[in-house]
Design a protein that fits this description.
Elements lengths: L4 H6 L11 H4 L3 H15 L17 H22 L8 H20 L15 H8 L18
Helix pairs in contact: 4-5, 5-6
């Protein structure tokens, strides 16, 4: 069983960003999503995993860990919202991810990973603000007329 990129980064292994995990290539990702996510959480739960850098990326391991958690959080909302559902992460996740993504946002916009910040009202929730900093419209719904999302 191959590791996902996030799992390999946690283990300080070199990764090939052009390779898809075998479960994506063979179409089995839905069946394995829960197990792979649990493996990802386990990989990033090892004591000391947030210390140092992540090898070839040369980024602080804590930053990469926040990127992984941010991806899971934001893309869970993307998927839930696109399928007519809702997703609200735990407050402790938002407390970790929110400041990290806000700090990364200018560089993420430069490399087109985030869209321009979406304007939200003063009354916006912490999660709505996090979504907005990535360029997402927290009010978006399938078939709605609200603003577009970024990756």
């Amino acid at each position: 069983m191959t590791q996902t990129i996030g799992q390999a980064l946690a283990a300080r292994e070199d990764v090939d960003f052009t390779q898809e995990p075998d479960f994506v290539a063979d179409g089995d990702w839905r069946a394995r999503f829960g197990d792979e996510t649990a493996r990802l959480v386990k990989a990033w739960s090892v004591p000391g995993v947030e210390e140092g850098t992540t090898g070839q990326m040369g980024l602080p391991a804590r930053t990469v860990g926040l990127m992984v958690l941010g991806d899971l959080t934001v893309h869970a909302w993307d998927l839930a919202r696109a399928t007519g559902g809702d997703f609200v992460p735990e407050r402790s996740v938002l407390d970790e991810v929110g400041p990290g993504l806000a700090a990364m946002a200018p560089q993420a916009r430069e490399i087109k990973m985030f869209g321009e910040p979406f304007p939200v009202p003063e009354s916006a929730t912490v999660f709505e603000r996090l979504l907005a900093v990535t360029g997402r419209d927290p009010g978006w719904t399938p078939g709605g007329t609200a603003g577009a999302t970024a990756s």
